[in-house]
Specification:
Elements lengths: L1 H35 L3 E2 L10 E5 L10 H15 L5 E5 L9 H13 L6 E4 L5 H10 L5 E6 L1 H13 L3 E6 L8 H24 L22
Parallel strand pairs: 1-6, 2-3, 2-5, 3-4, 5-6
Length: 226
């Protein structure tokens, strides 16, 4: 009888912890979306001017980029063409010699769009959205920015950037390629948890993996090349 009572107490405790975690996760997500929504734009024309476009990296391949990255590139260049920004900060994962998001994105932009080399800066240590925003502020001296990314990601990106002191807004990247329903569902699940992690990072004031010498976004982009 005593063992049954103890087992029941354990089950109730676990259930309470799961419920509390679920409510915390829900609360963080609702708060983050509500906070960021006023700063998210769906079209370039209504976008306020910001000096810098931040283009977060994502999966790239040997000679091309993923659809997610292609959409972000398209949106970023629309900002430049419309006179809504003057510089592009490409931030991504270049933590290994055999995987390089930022240089692959740069090569794609020059090859496909003929983008001028003198407006693009590369952040080789943008391993996460949090690190991208942190390094944009402290390494590249970015003060205001428009972050171009998929809609599901805009809220977290804006929340992090503004909490770190950037005058940031986000533009929903145009969808040049249709995404499958299961892809969107996968994004939604991962983003729910990623927002919680971002909330904790902001609250703790976590440091990025790398910082380094400053490379002002107003200066020479060649200083950001490897």
């Amino acid at each position: 009888m005593e063992k049954k009572k103890k087992a029941k107490a354990v089950i109730l405790t676990l259930a309470a912890l799961v419920l509390a975690a679920g409510l915390f996760c829900l609360g963080v997500n609702l708060h983050m979306v509500a906070y960021a929504r006023p700063y998210v734009y769906s079209d370039v024309d209504s976008l306020p001017y910001k000096y810098t476009v931040i283009l977060p990296g994502a999966r790239v391949y040997q000679n091309t980029v993923s659809h997610v990255v292609a959409d972000r590139i398209e949106g970023s260049l629309r900002c430049i063409k419309a006179g809504k920004a003057e510089r592009i900060l490409v931030s991504g994962d270049h933590g290994r010699k055999d995987y390089d998001e930022v240089n692959q994105i740069l090569a794609y932009m020059k090859r496909v769009y003929g983008t001028a080399d003198d407006i693009i800066f590369l952040d080789h240590a943008g391993f996460s959205t949090y690190e991208t925003a942190y390094r944009a502020r402290d390494v590249f001296c970015v003060k205001d920015a428009v972050i171009v990314t998929q809609k599901f990601h805009t809220y977290r990106a804006v929340y992090i950037a503004r909490k770190l002191g950037l005058d940031a807004v986000a533009l929903e990247a145009p969808e040049l390629f249709p995404y499958a329903g299961r892809t969107r569902a996968s994004w939604a699940v991962r983003e729910t948890l990623a927002r919680v992690k971002a909330f904790i990072n902001v609250a703790r004031g976590s440091k990025p993996t790398y910082l380094g010498e400053q490379i002002p976004i107003t200066g020479d982009p060649q200083a950001s090349r490897d």
